[in-house]
Each structure stands twice: as C-alpha cells, then as structure tokens.
Write a structure and sequence with these properties.
The chain is α/β, with parallel strands linked by helices and about 500 residues long. Helices cover about 45% and strands about 15% of the residues. β10, α13 and β11 form a beta-alpha-beta unit. The longest helix is centred in the N-terminal third of the chain and has 23 residues.
C-alpha cells in the first residue's frame, strides 16, 4: 500500500482505542479508551499502518477525564501546554464538553450517547477532515455513521466497519442543531421512511446512524465473513430490515466483505503475567497442569490436575451467548462424569449468573462448579487452566474467546454460527485438522453432544492428544493475531484506492 510517491493519507475515525504508536505524537501512548473489541482492532490497524510507513491519522474524542488518568499526576495546566505543542502529530482529538468528563466511552443514557456522537462527528467533519485532507476515511460503528455520507459529498472514499448492530436515530433538525450541515448531504442519509424532500423530512423523519453509515460508505465490512452472509441471507430476525437491505445491496455490488477481529496481543501464555506458570505450545502439558492446580486451589475446587475443566468466558446473556443451554445440562454433565472430577468454571457477569449459583447451591456442587464475577486476571488464568472453552452463542458477529482459547490450548466448543463458523472447525486426530468441537443444533442436546465429544478427545492417550493441542496452539497464534487482521484491512484500502471514485 505504501508508495514513496503519492502516498495515500488514511484517517481512521474511532470512538475508542487501546494504544497508539509512540511515533504518532508526544502523548500518543496515553490515549487509551476502551469499551470493547473495537478499541483493540483500531489500535492494531493504526500500528500496522504506521509501522509500514503509511500516512495514517486518527480521530477520536478527547476523553479528558479518561486520558488524564493515564498521565498520572500531571496537572491540567501542564496537559494543556503539551496539547498545544502537538501541531504535527497524527492524533486528532475532537474537543467538546460532551465527552471531556466522561469516565467511560459510552454513557448509560441513550440521550447522552447521541449527544456525544453528534459532538464527535461535528468536530471530525468541521475541523479534522479539512485539516487532514485524507484520501480515505475509515469509520467504525454507529457513533461515526454520519461521516461516510458526508465523505461521499466531499468526494472522499470511505470504509464503514460494523462491529455490532446497535444504532441510534435523530432527525435532521437535531443533527443540524448540533452544528452538522446535514442539509448538504441529506440525500446520502438513511431515513425511517423514503423522504419526499429535505423540508418535509427535516423534523419528522429520523435518520438511522448505522444504516446511514452503510448506505453512504463506498465499502462496508463486518467483523466476520459468515456473519455478513447471515445478515444478507436474512438468517437473524433481530437484524433490522433496513440494515439487512443496505448490506445486501453493498454485498451484491461487491462492496462488502468480512474481516475477523483478533485477540489483544497480551493474550499469550508464554508471557502472560496472570498465569501461575507461563508456557508455550511445546511445553503446554506441564504448564496447563500447574495452572489447573492453581485455579482449583484459588476457587476451592476438587484438587486434581487430571480433571477435565470447561471454562465459560463470555457474559451470561441468554439472548446471544446461550448460558441457558449449559444450565440445562450442567448437573447431568457433572454427575455423569463425577468419577473424573469434571469441573466447570464460569468467570462472567450477566443475568443468568443467578441461575448457575442456584444450581450449585441446590445440588451442592461447590467443589465441581465455580461461578465467579468477571475478573480479567482470573479469566486469563482460567484460559490457561482449562481444557475446553465454551462458546454456544446463538449468533456471533465475530467472537474472541474461541480464538483466545486456541492460543492457550483450551479447545473451543462452539455452535456453528457467524465468527465461530469462521474460526472453529471439528478436530480430526487422524488427519491432524481442526481445532475444536462444533454442534449444529442450537439446543441443550447439541451442546451436550459437543461436550461429550470433547471428553472423548480428552481421554485419548497423552502422546496423541498433546500433539494435537500443540498444533492448535501454534496455528491459533499464527492466524488469530492483529497482524493478519491489519493486513486484510490494508489490502481492502488498496482495492478501494484503485477503484474510480463514485459520488
């Protein structure tokens, strides 16, 4: 992508990021604001572009309260002095009191999030884009959904990435009241109903931010290839019809793709400081046994480093993640394999947690099942200690735990959907292929079958089993990383820049 002559300038617009390369500015490595996987993907993409010498710029809200905490005891006046000395930096902070005092990327109030989004996009459109003059703008999720339609009006190529399908709506009057000249590009926005003209739609025809991002962008991507196809084919009834229609139109015009996210690079059992013992694919057997014993001691589970351990890493959300499937068979699985000391560890918050606690209390499973609130250090230890990672999601735009499980040698058990389909395939010992256990029917029986298949694998001779786990760990590290993800985005940038610009 990077050419010595006529190097394209890319502006990445994101509401969150975990880190930025030091060379991008005096304070770049302090600009960390994270709510989910978008922050990691943004950071990895920016670093990959910067390392390749690309002319990459980043626009994000100036979360002063969050950023100040990252600086430690630097007083506000000193921060202001440092900020004013950054004219050549590639990090562009959108400034507005709407997010100066935010303690998190998003508010718990929908109206506040709309206010933050409009303030951010106003600053990007009115100040940052004119200053940067990019050749391509890469926007992410609903908080940046108005920028692709505006970029089309400005004659700038834009890519819009959908990390999740949440959206908000506002009328043209509300958008303009916040300082965005929506009248200039109103025809590239997506409305609740077909607009007759600007005037009649201005105050009573809400604009859908996420659908507008898709509609206005020159190219769109989701965070897995299969999830894109599931939306296009109408396989999920929770996806709004307008989003499905616009994504399908982009797909059939060959302007849509799926690019997988990847776990944060700190998820590496060879260097992870949260582990009782660090290990590599070559010595995983000893490392995982020691971490298993440490986890059992920490959670008061039956102490047996040969006991099979299943780990639940995702929030206990019955709409998406499927904890009800596990709760239905939990007692059956534990009692059926009582003699093996089978254990199930949940490190997750969510409404279904109380059901698991009730099951443990009713049946007295305290030394076989641990139900814990989410804690990152404990979660990392559980990846290292467990043999299998449970991912029975009903739907999954991408999913990261199944990838992390492979990297740590905790083989995933997954329903065949979305990003899980793209990252988990049935393990075949004879052919040395696959990396987990996949079930096709989304019900408790399907999950039970997959867990039994996993136990059959677990009972194989160590000489057979260990080699397969080594292979899965090595392949996971080579495939599920930010370098691979960034390379696919860079390839997409190249294709977009080579295409004729269509207004």
């Amino acid at each position: 992508m990077v050419k010595k002559s006529n190097k394209p300038r890319v502006l990445i617009v994101t509401p969150e990021v975990t880190y930025l390369p030091d060379g991008m500015g005096n304070m770049a490595n302090h600009f960390s604001a994270k709510a989910g996987g978008l922050a990691d993907v943004s950071a990895a993409l920016v670093k990959a572009l910067f390392d390749q010498g690309a002319d990459v710029h980043v626009a994000l809200p100036d979360y002063r309260a969050i950023f100040s905490a990252n600086f430690g005891p630097i007083i506000r006046r000193e921060l202001s002095t440092i900020r004013s000395s950054m004219p050549d930096d590639r990090v562009h902070l959108a400034e507005d009191r709407a997010f100066f005092y935010q303690r998190g990327v998003y508010s718990n109030y929908a109206a506040e999030n709309l206010k933050i989004s409009l303030a951010f996009q106003r600053e990007v459109l009115n100040h940052i884009i004119p200053k940067v003059q990019p050749d391509l703008i890469h926007c992410n999720d609903w908080m940046t959904g108005l920028i692709p339609p505006a970029a089309r009006w400005l004659g700038i190529r834009s890519l819009f990435t959908i990390h999740n399908i949440h959206t908000v709506k506002a009328t043209l009057a509300q958008i303009e009241d916040r300082g965005i000249d929506a009248a200039a590009f109103w025809q590239s926005l997506f409305y609740d109903r077909q607009p007759f003209n600007y005037e009649e739609s201005r105050e009573n025809n809400p604009v859908d931010f996420l659908a507008s991002g898709v509609f206005g962008a020159h190219f769109v991507n989701t965070v897995s290839p299969t999830f894109l196809m599931e939306i296009v084919e109408g396989r999920h009834n929770f996806v709004p019809a307008n989003l499905k229609g616009e994504l399908a139109a982009k797909y059939h015009a060959q302007c849509a793709a799926g690019i997988l996210n990847a776990p944060d690079p700190s998820y590496n059992p060879a260097t992870d400081k949260a582990l009782a013992r660090q290990y590599t694919p070559q010595n995983h057997s000893l490392g995982k046994r020691q971490n298993k014993r440490h986890l059992q001691e920490s959670l008061n589970l039956f102490k047996d480093d040969s006991a099979p351990v299943f780990f639940w890493p995702s929030r206990l959300d019955p709409v998406q993640k499927g904890p009800q499937l596990l709760s239905e068979i939990l007692y059956k699985m534990v009692s059926r394999h009582w003699h093996t000391h089978l254990q199930i560890v949940l490190v997750a918050n969510g409404e279904w947690q109380k059901h698991f606690r009730n099951i443990v209390e009713f049946h007295g499973l305290y030394d076989r099942v641990a139900v814990c609130n989410f804690d990152e250090k404990l979660s990392r230890l559980a990846y290292a200690a467990s043999d299998f990672t449970l991912m029975p999601s009903r739907f999954e735009p991408c999913g990261l735990p199944q990838m992390t499980g492979c990297i740590y040698g905790s083989l995933p058990i997954a329903f065949d959907t979305g990003g899980l389909h793209d990252t988990v395939s049935p393990i075949n010992v004879e052919k040395s292929t696959g990396n987990g256990f996949v079930f096709q029917n989304w019900d408790a029986g399907g999950l039970e079958w997959a867990m039994e298949e996993a136990l059959r694998f677990y009972n194989l001779p160590d000489s057979v089993k260990d080699g397969q786990i080594t292979r899965v760990m090595m392949r996971g590290a080579s495939l599920f990383n930010h370098s691979v993800t960034a390379a696919q985005y860079i390839d997409l940038y190249e294709k977009m820049l080579q295409r004729p610009l269509v207004a």
